[in-house]
Amino acid sequence: MKKGIIMEMDDFFLTLLTPEGEFLRAKRLKQSYSIGEEITFYPVEGKNQLRYLSSIKKVAKMKTVWAAAAAVLLFSGSFIPMYQNNKAYAYMSIDVNPSIELGINKKMQVVELTGYNPEGKKIISHLDDWEKQDVTKVTEEILSEIGKEGYFKTNKHVIISTVPTSQMEKKEEQKLETDIKEITKAVSEQQLAYTVLSGTEKDLETAHEKGVTAGKYKAVNNPVAKEKVENNWKKYKNHSNPTEPEAKAPPGQLKKQMEENVTQEPPAVDNTPQAAVDQSPVEDNIPPGQAKKMDDNQQKQNPGQAKKQAIQQESQGNSQGNSQGNPNPKGKYHYSDNQIKQRNK
């Protein structure tokens, strides 16, 4: 009698694997069995048994091969996505004064973060849990830290560059472009100027050899990129600080413009009644004929007003004479004939 584990079953026989590694055959009794169950049995011997055992061994070997192949496939299936998630398929750089480069996988997650100057390394040291985070989120955190450190006070122009590798597919490049639009929108909301540049893997390699980001390398060494940066900065300054021609005019010209633009005030209108304009006594220096003519014209225009004026002048003349003495050598004031006539009426 032997002990073994049931490997196969049919209507009449059981195939069992013994602890010694043998495959043996036994008659199936009228009881329930299950694959993997360990039982005791009496082996069945014969030529058919030997041929059967030989075929069983071959099948067992094939099963082992297939099991190993399946294990390799399972391992590969889990390893390849993990490898892709940890590998950078595109690079994006942010340059203000801090220079920072981000490595991005196919899911647009940041898997690499490098500072290319002391300022950039300082900003990175302030970031937590950036790995495998979305590139837009990490970029917004970087811009926020740059603002907190005060770098935007001296430079309000952000240069953003992208370099997709040859292994990145078209749909992934489109997704990166969409993310760049979101990033530039966030830059604009902070009242900053920005320029987006694109480079090649060769640009990236050369930039790394020089110890700078691809964006800074192109902005300095590529004439087209350099002009683009300068034009964007000029547009930003003109929009933020519109020029004033008056402030730029030469001092002499500016003074002349100011004098020409001075608004002349209209002459004051005298609404004082005519009778109260001049109530002082008539002096001898006015020619008699002219004084008479003036009195005649005044009397023709308004006889009542002339009479009233004569009475007021007489009253003022008496008061002035009492308080100041007689300015006339004769001690009297001189009145025109018409004023005297008007007084006697």
TrEMBL record:
Residues 228-345 are annotated as: Disordered. PROSITE patterns: RSGI_N (PS51849). The keyword Magnesium does not apply. Pfam families: RsgI_M, RsgI_N. Keywords: Cell membrane, Membrane, Transmembrane, Transmembrane helix. Residues 299-314, 336-345 have a biased composition (Polar residues). It is found in: Cell membrane. The chain crosses the membrane at residues 64-83. InterPro entries: Anti-sigma_RsgI_N, RsgI_M. It is a single-pass membrane protein. One of its GO terms (cellular component) is plasma membrane. Residues 315-326 have a biased composition (Low complexity). This is Anti-sigma factor domain-containing protein. It comes from Neobacillus citreus.
